[in-house]
Design brief:
5 strands; globular; Rossmann fold
Length: about 325
Amino acid sequence: MKALSVVHRVEDMDDRTVSSAFGRTDCGCGLRSQPVVNPEAPALSAYEELPPDRPVPDFVLLGAMKAGSTTLFRRLEQHPAIAAGGTKEPNFFSRDENWSRGLDWYRTQLASGPAELLRGEASVEYADPRLAPTVMRRLVEVAPRAHILLVLRHPVERLRSHYRHEVQRSRERRPLAEAVLEPDNAYVRRSCYAPTIEAVLATVGAAQLLVLRSEQLDEEETWVKVLGHLGVSHIALPTTRYNVAAEKEGFTAAMLKLWERGWIDRMKRLPKPARKIGRRVLMRRGTGFDERMAASEAPVPESVVETLALDAKRTTELLGWGTCPWDF
């Protein structure tokens, strides 16, 4: 298959491509751009207007779940022109309970620092096709000029990684094939990108959107284009990867919570006997976990692959890629 550039700036699409892309909405996933967030939640007009000296997100990263959004966001935080230390996933635009807290609460979730620093946030919820229309409607009311980064991954590989994610958290015990055949399951739904892309393109200017593929996030060319999209100077591409599934294998639910909260590094400073006891208590034992993890490599049912391939075709049309970058 012809190799494609990882980064696709939507402003490079001509009007004919965009208009023809919006000519139909069937992506094969049975999804359309309809909000599912509670319509009774307060509209932004109920809040005070954001003072000009208070931070708003200069950029928002919409990451398909298990597509590398944490790695990209943490790398961006290492840039001297970008404020670090805020909540990565405040989920302000996707959750009614957070939206109803208002802008003052939202500001506390963003990184602090000098006013000239860029502030951003990221959430995999924002890329959920069921939530994306409401997310984008709310986002443009709060930050109409925010730069949007959308990170995608090969739909089948994303599905497999999502399944492993749930197994690691002891929330999934079914075989992969059974889990992905359940009607309206999240594994398949979140690997369907066209509805989310439609919601984004319907609400922001093309120049605000940069689409990335996770398969090439480690490439210098991609890093240069991301920094250019945000309008910041070049720095060396960080090499650390974050939230890597392989590092979580073998954790119990309790161990995983400690790892996610950064306590594992602190535990390394404990005396060796204490660490040894901790491993016995917190590390997963037995064959059931390993068997379920191995099941993530089982063949994906043909009907699911066909659904994902159809959505990938629609995604290709929407973004004007010409050729789909993924094999099925």
